[in-house]
Amino acid sequence: MLGVGAVAMASRFVLTGVDHGLMIGSLGASAVLVFGAPRSPLAQPRNLVGGHVLSALVGVLCYQWVGGPEGLSAAFAVATAIALMHLTRTLHPPGGATALIAVVGSEQIHDLGLLYAAAPAGVGALILLVVGLLVNNLPTGRRYPELWW
């Protein structure tokens, strides 16, 4: 609740007037990993932030360069994001949705262009990371992250 709530509050000050600001659906899935499975390799900071930012860049570039039928651009964006996340060791499953949103999102999302990687994708992931660091380290016997990089 605190992680997604913090993203929602920040949305009031960042990207106001753009769909839901920083609130992209893939961040909800990231919250499940960060708060529900903090020991998962897929929930670690490198994966969380790197996966979203890299996938956002891929999605925007696929939308801009591949064009054609939306389904083709969407499929290419998700497949390419998965491959690049594997290559860079930043695999984060919600990143696939971040790439997809860049292609099938509204005109406001498309108008952001490469800035989509910074906000909402990067800033939203960083907010979840900060809240995850605070919340996940409160209970004794629980540590987040398992590794930073």
What are its keywords?
globular, mainly alpha, 149 residues, 7 helices, single chain
Largest sheet: none
Q: How would you state the average pLDDT, rounded?
A: 91
Distance between the termini: 26 Å
Q: Which term fits the overall shape?
A: globular
Task: Point out poorly predicted stretches.
Answer: none
The percentage helix is 55-70%
How many individual helices?
7
Radius of gyration: 15 Å
Proportion of residues in β-strands: under 5%
Element layout with pairings:
Blueprint: H1 2-11, H2 25-36, H3 45-65, H4 70-87, H5 94-104, H6 107-112, H7 115-136
Helix pairs in contact: 1-7, 2-5, 2-7, 3-4, 3-5, 3-7, 4-5
